[in-house]
Design brief:
2 copies of one chain form a homodimer. Chain A is of the alpha/beta class and 378 residues long. Chain A has one domain (3-269): TIM Barrel. Chain A contains 16 helices and 16 strands. In chain A, strands 4-5-6-10-11-12-13-14 form an 8-stranded parallel β-barrel, surrounded by 4 helices. A 3-stranded antiparallel β-sheet of chain A has the order 1-2-3. The first copy, chain A, has a 3-stranded antiparallel β-sheet with strand order 7-8-9. In chain A, helix 7 (156-176) runs parallel beside helix 8 (195-206) and helix 10 (252-260) runs parallel beside helix 14 (327-353). The longest helix of chain A has 27 residues, at 327-353. Chain A is globular, with a radius of gyration of 20 Å. Chains A and B meet through helix 13 and helix 14 of A and helix 13 and helix 14 of B.
Amino acid sequence: MFKYTLEAVCPQTGARAGRFSTPHGHVETPVFMPVGTQATLKSVPHRPFLLEMETQIILANAYHMFLRPGTELVKKAGGLHKFMNWPRPMLTDSGGFQVFSLASLLKVTDEGVKFQSPRDGAYHFISPERAMQIENDLGADIMMAFDECLPADADYARTAKSIKRTFQWAERCQAAHARKDDQALFGIVQGGMFKDLREQSAAEITSLDFPGYAIGGLSVGETMDQMHEVLSWTAHLLPANKPRYLMGVGTPIDLLKSVATGIDMFDCVIPTRVGRHGQAMGLNDRVILNNAKNREDFGPLFDHCKCHTCQNYTRAYIRHLFKAGEQLAGTLVSIHNIYFLVDLMRQARKAILDGRYGDFLTECGVAYQPLTDSVAGV
Amino acid sequence: MFKYTLEAVCPQTGARAGRFSTPHGHVETPVFMPVGTQATLKSVPHRPFLLEMETQIILANAYHMFLRPGTELVKKAGGLHKFMNWPRPMLTDSGGFQVFSLASLLKVTDEGVKFQSPRDGAYHFISPERAMQIENDLGADIMMAFDECLPADADYARTAKSIKRTFQWAERCQAAHARKDDQALFGIVQGGMFKDLREQSAAEITSLDFPGYAIGGLSVGETMDQMHEVLSWTAHLLPANKPRYLMGVGTPIDLLKSVATGIDMFDCVIPTRVGRHGQAMGLNDRVILNNAKNREDFGPLFDHCKCHTCQNYTRAYIRHLFKAGEQLAGTLVSIHNIYFLVDLMRQARKAILDGRYGDFLTECGVAYQPLTDSVAGV
């Protein structure tokens, strides 16, 4: 049931506008996906706030749902959509990233990963087959293959070995995926900071003909320049007729630059994380609510912003809420931040459809160089 | 601009239906007022949740707003309605109760109260005149007189002395109140657990012809039986053509019983306080989300409840949110609890208008004895 349509490629850049359909409706790209780690967004009630701001798709974490409340319970509830009452498309990651970054790793073999839960010390084993079972139980519209995630400083030899394992795991994921009619499985390209390994991984993973592809292993500690260099090697190697998802990214500027290389989908916890700490996101700046200058500022977080927060509340009020330690503080700023990224991608899409994404980047203060046809990935 | 109309008195009990108008709209009674302590409800975004559940009026705390962010700031914002963007009626207490219960009291004289802020140790002095200035700055539709609040175990001599002071302060509040056209000042009857002192205080305070009256000094540690005994002495002494407000009460059963004695208005922090701790309120019972039996319960908190939470989420999901320590947990249960009390008063009002509030009490499982005419206060 998953179907992607490439609608336009901006002639000024490699930016793409597209759409894909899922059992829970269609998604227009480029798109930012807010992260609902534990079947809820931190600080933001998804009803009504995410629905009202026209969030098209959210991400949930298989790893977290596996540990708590357990995927069997979610399956009994009728899947994650029903469990949390989210009516629109949803994507689950495989848990790979979290297993490698959050848990106590005990043993990684070609078979899978044995780890200890950081919460209660319980032992768990996740293989590609187990990851597919978990994601099938959760029932998201898009699920991610189980891959090996290395730190940004992994050396060449280790990375070369790892992409081989990630490829084998991708094959096993594809074989084990039991709900191909309902759920689209995306493959993940790895390869660290090494151009030839990225190329090799892209060739291997795309040979499996997944309905969509992600670029993994970024936003793990490398510099912004490194990330965009890897992207410039990799994005155009992914087939033009499939959606391209850059995992775990990022800041507004990261999103805008990545769209120019042909990326379609993003997720990141930044908007709620910095929102809870009183930072309201703008394109190149942040409003720090704690700053004294906001004490008597009866204007919105950002002029002209159409989000629920900026339409209803002042900086002075939100600052008071932070000072008073009230929950609504983090809620309001997180709402603004999520809206900001969701809306930024809406604006990007419009600019692409109008054939002027390069101009849009310039208006946003982002330098860009027109890309060659091959890099644009058309 | 404040105007109260008594619409009906139930022939089976002393229960009253009425309405009052304010600069921010009218309020139908009996009514439950959720408490927005620090210009926000704990856990519940007032937009949209309180608006959607048709909360008619909320309460804010002058004491808390005085300490943080300071009433001068709120005044600059255009008053508390504008500061927190609440478009409907609002009531502020005078801070009396909080000064006597939360702050470090340094000296109480006929002039006023000197106290230290528990937050930063700063010294403050509040007199009736200062309290009126604070409440005038906040600009709520209803403001409360500054009174002396004693503990429930205060003896006769101390209470007798105190009601004298409360009366003198009420007179001074009335004289100092600078915005009589915009804001209705309610007097507060005290008198502890002593019938003759309650009668004396009621006679004194009502002699000042306030547009409404509150019964204070209850819900401070006395038993439920004591509280309802005091109410039975006091409620009918308040003029029938003015609204009657029982401060700081209470549980669903307390509300229902109090309405039967002729009370029109209530406020209490119970719904958000117990909500944050995972207790969903029913008439005579509470759902404890933490209980294991809710783990796989895919039904709502309460069958047939029309609140946002019960219409959208299951016990299993909300329990998961509590287990995961997610903010949405307390939000959802608090929404249910507030709705429950707001709606309970709506149902009570309908029963009163239908002349069957006694039957309604029976249906709710509350024993009642038909009251005499004098007690009914008609």
